[in-house]
Batch of 4 targets.
Target 1
Amino acid sequence: MIDKALFKLPGARSILKRLVGLYVLQAVLIIGQALFLTAVLVGLWHGHSWQSQGRGILLFALCFVLRQIVNWWAGSKLSRYARSAAQSLRGRLLKKVFALGPHLTQDQGTGHLVTLTLDGISNIEQYIELMFSKVLVMMIVPVVILLLSFYLNWVCALIMLAVYPLIIIFMILLGNAALDKAKTQFGVFTKLSNNFLDSLRGIDVLKYVGLSKRYSKSIFNSSERFRHSTMDVLKIAMLSTFALDFFTTLSIAILAVYLGYGLIQARLTLFPSLAILILAPEYFKPIRNFASDFHATLNGKNSFAAINKILSQPDPVEPKLALHPWSSNDDLQLQNVSFAYEHGAQIAPVNTTIHGLAKVGIVGMSGSGKTTLINMIAGFLKPRAGQFVIQGHPVAEMNLAQWRSQIIYIPQSPYVFTASLRDNVAFYTPGVSDERVKEAIHVVGLDDLVAELPDGINTMIGSGKRVLSGGQAQRIALARAFLDRKRRILIFDEPTAHLDIETELELKKRMLPLMKDRLVIFATHRLHWMHQMDYILVMNHGRLVEQGTEAALMADNGYYRQLVDQMRGGSTNVQ
Ligand SMILES: Nc1ncnc2c1ncn2[C@@H]1O[C@H](COP(=O)(O)OP(=O)(O)OP(=O)(O)O)[C@@H](O)[C@H]1O
Ligand SMILES: [Mg+2]
């Protein structure tokens, strides 16, 4: 019912200790309040005047006010703690997401991670608050009241004691059913958020191919499933509230009947009987409160478990290497480096050496594994087997800060941040002057775009702002590379995939100078780039089938030659 990890949150123990003190005080005040009220009522019953009960009334009022103050104080302490614990959890989660990198988002789905960091954390805040307050109160207040009841009338105390386990058994039974339903609901919610985000991202394609209606239907169906699962949780929650109310009311009624008979037969005296009758609802109140809020905490419990699962994944350990800035004498060897996606596609063991400031082309048909190979070299994917040897150091993967800090990576679809054009271009070099940014923009041929933008390079671009075409996004990525002279390694993944051949050739002229004095790894299926490459890796169906200089590959008359022949007449002959 309670996630034990809750008690391992930083600061949980100290707040719990303080809360225990406050709730014990609260229990004492509840008892004081009941006893003084009983004393006043009994006094009045025996015909004493209001005036003579003044002291009792005052003490009752004092207990009442103090109880409210203690309640408020404990509540505000707890909500402050819950807020800060939830915030620190969000911080840790985000840190972990960045540490684990792209494979986590692939694993979990971006939509799910977004809802987890936003709604999930607020649910956890509520969960912490309810669990720490209600559970503690439930463990303290009824015990104190029961002890006093034994002193006042042991038969009544026994009745109260006997009913309690019954209520708890019911609560556990219904709670478990609710938990199962809530787990289903959480799963449906995860699918809904991923599905929704996917559809938002692909909305232009969906509209274009006329599938948007069918997709909106699929979102409608997921949200319907979510609605049904939510109703299932609520039904059980209602049922459990009803069952508990029934049991507690019944037991208070039994007490009242027993006490009434006792009084009529003069077996009992008024004071203890009335005190117990006043205290009985207070005795059952904590468990009723807990049960009625229990379903509200289930989402928090599930989010908490989901976040803890992510947090418990080990951080990638970075070997301590002393890499120096990449130079013409350095080597990167791939020794039997292989990869397998969870859903089947594989890269067979690759063996090659990338040397110094070479320009290395990676070619192959679509789906042959170019991006996968590039992503392993760039450190985004961890090979399943094999190793890299970088500057003489063997490493299992290239996810090395010292390697990443030397790379400029231009992916197949570069990401344009929602920021000004200037900040997007100066991504690797935030401190450069506006003049240099404008120069870079000019070099990659984005002057026309700047002329169109209302605030020039300070115009906000990206999602939700001025959206750019695929080619413009790639030019921005190139401008980033142009500005950064320090990074000596350029990794390109189809940087001209979105461009028509004329634009590509125009851009090629601007890109070639960027490649000078740098190690370049360039994946593409446009073969005309190979004329500028010193060494070529040829991929086919996840295998490195050939490697060598272009001349050697052409002379070999193998798969590369086949590719060239297939494309002859196309872009291959363009210089
Ligand atoms: N995240 C992934 N999960 C599972 N399989 C994947 C994933 N990404 C790629 N694949 C599969 O791995 C194989 C190689 O894909 P990859 O993207 O490396 O090819 P590519 O040569 O870059 O293709 P393209 O020229 O179209 O970019 C393909 O069969 C692809 O379907
Ligand atoms: Mg690719």
Target 2
Amino acid sequence: MTSANSPEELRGRMVDRIIGAGLLRSARIEAAMRTVPRHEFAPAASLADAYADRTVTVKPGPDGPVSTLSMPSVVAIMLRQLDPLPGDNVLEIGAGAGYNAALLAELVGPAGAVTTIDIDSDVTAHAREALDATGYHHVRVINADGAFGAPDRAPYDKIIVTVGPWDLPAAWFDQLAVVGRLVVPLYWRGQSRSIAFTRHEDHLRAVDSQPCAFIPMVGDVAGGERSAGLADGVSLHWDEDQRIDTAALRSAVGGVGTTLWSGVTVAPHEGVDGIWLRLTATEAGTCRISATEAAIAHGPVKPIFPGWAPAVVDGDSLAYLTSARRTANGQRRYALGATGHGPRGHELADRIVATIKRWDGNRAAQPVITAWPVGTEPRVSGQVIAKRQTTLVLQDG
Ligand SMILES: C[S@@+](CC[C@H](N)C(=O)[O-])C[C@H]1O[C@@H](n2cnc3c(N)ncnc32)[C@H](O)[C@@H]1O
């Protein structure tokens, strides 16, 4: 018999909620999540916090957590993308608390192997201790920069990255077996998505991508993002391969904007991440705009979300995704549109509106994403995103 607030009960309810949200359809992953005692990997958290659908801080830092235990629903999504099979040799980048490594050990079984790497020695010490205490002695924990992988046990059947890199380092491609799977929450053009790639002879090809947000990866692959203030409380964030004229954009944002509406509406909490994804496949100037609540309340900009909203920049002009609350048949909805600033702001807003309409025509459609190690000429055409070690090509469907 277990009591209503025992770890087993709370764990069961956590898994039931993830299933109820439609995010867990694999009986094997479900069994692993019902087995691994998540609270043992977060000893400082209350049982309720350990089993809530939230991140749990493992190591705090001055600008936010250095390490966290990922949200259980995100863990489930990424394991589904990875599909670890009995006997697989798996590499994890970002050991954190060691929780996901324990799930991987359950899924690959005694015939498989799990190596997990973390750059922070306090974190690896914690992960080692928690894995030993829960009986996962056979998981190998390494303290190093995960950008270089762990060549001694390569090739891996599966590689999972549980920290947000800006680039795909050559080592991950080199250490992944052909037809192997890489799951990685990659940042590009201001957004972050967990992409499931399959390795082909000379490139990676995405089979799925889902929105997610992770702690940015530090070390060798960090540092490809740029940002600057455009007005009081308003900032723009872009990638180093993009040309951004911040002086011209400051002057654009100082002027009056033009808002165009698409006629498309969404329910509260309905995801619009697919619009951003589609923009990255068609608009070279896609980036992120952020604004404080005060800047939104008093002008000059009103992006759809304060911290994260897609913007498109072209020379001296910019436009961004916006929304307005509407009521239709007594139901609250949000109308989607775009606001443009600068000499070509109207034209850019019109292009975002066209993307909203295309997205609405088939919300599940995703661009084809391929990744080519630098030095290999991409054999496909599409929107090229030049990282330092990888070239991404997005082809809009
Ligand atoms: C979200 S946590 C990982 C969660 C973990 N998988 C779990 O199950 O608890 C991200 C981790 O990535 C680590 N990290 C950041 N940059 C890294 C790098 N270059 N190499 C390896 N680990 C890194 C951080 O120290 C942090 O512990």
Target 3
Amino acid sequence: MANVPAIEIRDLHKQFGSLKVLKGISLTACQGDIVAIIGGSGSGKSTLLRCINLLERPTSGEIAIQGEPYRMKDARHGGLEIADRRQVQRIRAHLGMVFQNFNLWPHRTVLENVIEVPIHVLGMKRDEAIHRAEELLNRVGLGSKKDIYPAVMSGGQQQRAAIARVLAVDPLAMLFDEPTSALDPELVGEVLSVIRDLAAEHRTMLLVTHEMAFARDVATHVVFLREGIIEEQGPPDQIFGDPRSPHLKQFISSVA
Ligand SMILES: Nc1ncnc2c1ncn2[C@@H]1O[C@H](COP(=O)(O)OP(=O)(O)O)[C@@H](O)[C@H]1O
Ligand SMILES: [Mg+2]
């Protein structure tokens, strides 16, 4: 098991109508890898993450999670469609996605947000789910907030709750899509610090971020996406310290 990649993407293409957004992405994340995905706005970063849990259906290509390829079939009007909905539900339940805008359920307390999927999708006993949720909320510094609603929390607190919700499914991999970019600057640090702890535990993650210093610090591998292709990739010190592609050089200096 240990040698099976957590996420393996082969020649992934995605187009919306005639707009080609991903043009042949191949990427492997082994267990414990922290893959930072950087690139300009519109380069396809969110689409790539959304294809990994099939929130977007690829036009072509293959994605395997923990060695298990999604079963897809050709759609009538081109592209692929899901061939086995239950497989997707099962795999997706273990791919924790953290979005820019937190996406907590607004009409549920923080605790209820965290126990929902463990109870209703994974079939965990309620007592056990609550016990585990309380541990996770303590871990992200929200032990005292469990009974309040997301709307009365700061963005940083909401995002930490969203991370606890993902941890509650014991994810095979965590997918972060610009987790700090909707936050006021003074709240960014508390969320990065939670992510840094998870990285230190060698939790597999794909992290789309504009926080370049953070990416350089925690990533094991960095991927530069440009116009739907991986233009350059490598270890963080090489990508940030010795970029080859002129576009990557320009990108790094523009966000520094
Ligand atoms: N559902 C969609 N329908 C049509 N175009 C889309 C859709 N989602 C994304 N796009 C387009 O795909 C391109 C890449 O978007 P996205 O993956 O969100 O880029 P990034 O996250 O790197 O900023 C953009 O041109 C965007 O407008
Ligand atoms: Mg995006």
Target 4
Amino acid sequence: MSTAVAQRDRVVLTEVAKTYDTATGATVALSPTDLVIELGEFVSIVGPSGCGKTTLLQLLGGFLAPTSGALLVGEDRIDGPSPDRGVVFQAPTLYPWLSVRGNIEFGPRCRGVDKRTRRAESDRLLDLVGLGDVGAKRPYELSGGMQQRAQIARVLANDPRIILMDEPFGALDQLTRERLQVELLRLWRQAGKTVVFVTHSVEEAVFLSTRVLVMSARPGRIIVDRRIDLPGDDADRVRDLRVTATPEFQAVKSELAQAIYDAHR
Ligand SMILES: Nc1ncnc2c1ncn2[C@@H]1O[C@H](COP(=O)(O)OP(=O)(O)OP(=O)(O)O)[C@@H](O)[C@H]1O
Ligand SMILES: [Mg+2]
């Protein structure tokens, strides 16, 4: 990959802070934060509830404006949502008037992708997230976990260069969660995407990521920035769940769990 391409998709935050002004007073959600995320990184963000993880993700998505500081992707300032940055929200946000398949095909339809191609892609994605038999249903006919999977498929259908995910697997059963974790890793690896992933699970963060950020309690700031190297990473294949049994995995997991525990104080 050329340096120019890598730089085009580099995410750079400079002194980014966010304060919410509400009727009951101001809430400082994010302290001034500097952060550089390179193209192709898989960065997880963990930290106590209310520490500003969703705030940070919404800033990256362009759904919120910072109170101060600047966010750039390459040369471009983030000043609103973009199809290049796909967001999987903490609570599913599907279009209620469209079927599950209609939701998945919404982005491609807006881009003018022809019907046959759209259909083939939505078939593939429905299958990937295990919703092959409910494509014709409306979102309200689905369970919470199914809606979440439909939301993931809808984001993937847009083929964004940067994927922002806010606890996307939190509501899923263990087996589905593990399947989607491995699929996400495969997709990230094959397509050379950047992923920023918020989770409460240290285990999930370590398993998925090339880098884990730990945030302090509110007002959030990044207190640990840890690179994750696991056995087999250099073998140029997607990690599989067996790595979670290795001493290296357990060591980094307990180190980060301790950091999060300390962050609560
Ligand atoms: N729209 C808003 N208006 C006012 N305050 C907000 C708003 N959104 C978030 N906050 C406050 O900002 C702080 C950070 O919230 P945020 O949702 O970013 O936390 P979080 O780390 O994602 O938490 P969780 O792990 O529970 O999802 C909290 O104190 C919250 O009350
Ligand atoms: Mg949140």
